[in-house]
Design goal:
The chain is an alpha+beta fold. It is about 50% helix and about 10% strand. The strands form two sheets. A four-stranded mixed sheet has the order 5-2-1-7. It has a three-stranded antiparallel sheet with strand order 4-3-6. Strand 3 and strand 4 form a beta hairpin. The protein is globular. The termini are far apart.
Length: about 450
C-alpha cells in the first residue's frame, strides 16, 4: 500500500531538494535547504495521478509565460529564493523526474535511488550527486552511442538548464491507417526564444469507434522536428492519445481527427487520466486561439453530464467558468443564453442521483451560483437560500455558497434594496465571522 500523500511530496519536493544545492546556501552548516521543503505535508487525494496531472498543469502554464526560466540555476542568497517557488521549480521539476524514470526504466531508476539514499544518508546532496548515481547504474548496461537519448549530460542540459518546453502534433490519416499505419510526430518549440528540441519518452495509444484502446506503443520522440512511428495496421482507428499515461512533459496539440472524435466521445474514453489530459489540451487550444470559445462550450455540453470522475468534473467546470468570463465575447447575442444553459446544466447534475454525494454537491453548488446571471436564475437562488425549492431540500448551500448567493442577489435589478438587506441580515446572523465584513464591502460595491 502506497501513501499517496508521500508520493506527491516526493515528486514535487525531492526535486527541489536536489536542485536547492545549486543556488540556495544557508551558512556553512548546510549544503542546501532541502530539508525545509521535504517536511511539507500534503492533503489526502483519491487519485494520485490525476492530482499529479493537475499539479503538472501549473508547470505547463508557468513555463509558457514570458518569465519562464530553467529549473536549475543560481540563487545568490536566501531572500532571492522566493522568486523560484513556482510551477517550473516544483511541477516541471517533478515531471522531469518522472520522465527520467520512464527514460532509463523503473529498475535502473530504483537501483540508482538506493545507491543515492545509502550514500547520502543523514546528509544533504546536490543534483549532480543524484545524476552521478544514475550514471553509475546506466553506464554498466547502456551504450550511449547507440542510445543517445540516455546521455544524462545531454538530458541535464536540455531539461534542467534550458527554459521553456516543446509541443507535439501527430500527423496521420485514419482512412489509410489499416494498410499504412504510419504517423509522423511533429515537434516544435513553444517559445521561439528557446528553440531547443528534446528527446521525449512516451506512449501513444490508438482508440477505436467504441472508445476502446486497442494498441499502445512505447516511443522515443527524437531530438528533431519529425519522428516517424509505425504501428500494427488496424481498421476503425478514430483517435490517437499522445503521451498516454503521462510519462512526458510536453504540450500536446490534438490532431484534427482526434479532435473531431472527442467532441462527442471524450467522456467515453475509459482512462480518466487520458480524459483529463485531453481536456487540458483542448482548453489550451482555446487559450492559444486555436479553438473558439463557443466550440469549447459545445464540447463541454456534450460531455460533462456523462463524465464520472469528480476531479475531472471540477477541472472542466473551472475551464468553462474562465471560458465564459474571459473568452466568450460579450457582444454575442447568445451569451446570456449560454449562462442560463450552464445554470440549468449545473442544476440538472445536482438533482441527479450523483447529487446525493456531498463532494459532488460541493463542486456543483459553486457553479450553479456562478452562472446565475439572469433575473430568473437569481430569483431561483433566493428561493434556494430560503429553503423554498422542493427539489433541493436535501442540498443546502454552505456558508461560502450562501454568502455568494447574497452577493448575487445584490446584482439583481428587480429585487429591492430592502429585500437585499434582508438577505444580508439573515446570513450575517448565521455567520458572524470576518466574511460578514468582506461581503458587506462587496455588496456595497455592487449597489
Amino acid at each position: 500500500i502506497i501513501d499517496q500523500n508521500i508520493v506527491i511530496s516526493i515528486m514535487d519536493e525531492l526535486f527541489f531538494f536536489f536542485q536547492a544545492e545549486d543556488g540556495i546556501r544557508d551558512a556553512q552548516e548546510s549544503r542546501g535547504l532541502g530539508d525545509v521543503y521535504k517536511r511539507q505535508v500534503h492533503g489526502d487525494v483519491s487519485n494520485i495521478w490525476l492530482l499529479y496531472n493537475t499539479r503538472k498543469g501549473w508547470g505547463y502554464t508557468t513555463d509558457q509565460l514570458p518569465t519562464t526560466h530553467s529549473i536549475a540555476g543560481d540563487v545568490k542568497h536566501t531572500d532571492a529564493a522566493e522568486n523560484i517557488f513556482d510551477g517550473i521549480t516544483y511541477a516541471k521539476g517533478a515531471a522531469t523526474l518522472k520522465q527520467l524514470l520512464s527514460l532509463i526504466g523503473e529498475e535502473r531508476f530504483s537501483q540508482a535511488m538506493k545507491i543515492y539514499f545509502k550514500r547520502f544518508a543523514w546528509d544533504n546532496a546536490t543534483l549532480d550527486d543524484l545524476l552521478q548515481c544514475m550514471r553509475e547504474v546506466c553506464e554498466t548496461s547502456i551504450d550511449i552511442s547507440v542510445n543517445p537519448h540516455l546521455d544524462l549530460s545531454l538530458w541535464k542540459q536540455d531539461w534542467l538548464c534550458t527554459p521553456s518546453l516543446n509541443q507535439l502534433l501527430i500527423d496521420w490519416n485514419p482512412q489509410t491507417f489499416a494498410v499504412n499505419p504510419v504517423v509522423t510526430a511533429k515537434q516544435t518549440p513553444v517559445n521561439g526564444k528557446f528553440p531547443v528540441l528534446r528527446y521525449h519518452k512516451m506512449k501513444l495509444a490508438l482508440v477505436n469507434s467504441k472508445c476502446e484502446i486497442t494498441q499502445v506503443k512505447d516511443v522515443i520522440i527524437q531530438k528533431e522536428q519529425n519522428t516517424t512511428i509505425t504501428f500494427e495496421g488496424q481498421a476503425d482507428i478514430q483517435a490517437i492519445l499522445v503521451n498516454y499515461q503521462d510519462e512526458a512533459y510536453i504540450k500536446v496539440l490534438p490532431d484534427q481527427h482526434t479532435l473531431k472524435f472527442i467532441r462527442q466521445n471524450l467522456s467515453s474514453i475509459p482512462d480518466p487520466l487520458s480524459r483529463m489530459m485531453l481536456w487540458r489540451s483542448i482548453w489550451e487550444m482555446v487559450r492559444d486561439a486555436n479553438l473558439s470559445s463557443l466550440e469549447f462550450f459545445e464540447i463541454f455540453r456534450n460531455n460533462v453530464e456523462t463524465e464520472q470522475n469528480e476531479t475531472i468534473i471540477k477541472d472542466i467546470w473551472d475551464y468553462m467558468q474562465v471560458n465564459y468570463a474571459s473568452y466568450i465575447p460579450k457582444e454575442i447575442d447568445e451569451k446570456h443564453k449560454i449562462s442560463s444553459s450552464l445554470f440549468t446544466l449545473a442544476l440538472k447534475m445536482l438533482q441527479s442521483e450523483r447529487g446525493q454525494d456531498e463532494s459532488f454537491q460541493i463542486i456543483l453548488r459553486k457553479f450553479l451560483i456562478g452562472f446565475a446571471r439572469t433575473e430568473e436564475n437569481i430569483a431561483f437562488l433566493s428561493q434556494w437560500f430560503n429553503n423554498e425549492v422542493e427539489d433541493l431540500q436535501n442540498i443546502r448551500p454552505g456558508i461560502e455558497d450562501s454568502w455568494e448567493i447574497v452577493a448575487t442577489i445584490f446584482r439583481s435589478q428587480q429585487i429591492s434594496r430592502d429585500q437585499k438587506e434582508t438577505f444580508f441580515r439573515k446570513q450575517s446572523e448565521k455567520d458572524s465571522s470576518e466574511k460578514t465584513t468582506y461581503y458587506r464591502k462587496q455588496c456595497d460595491g455592487i449597489v
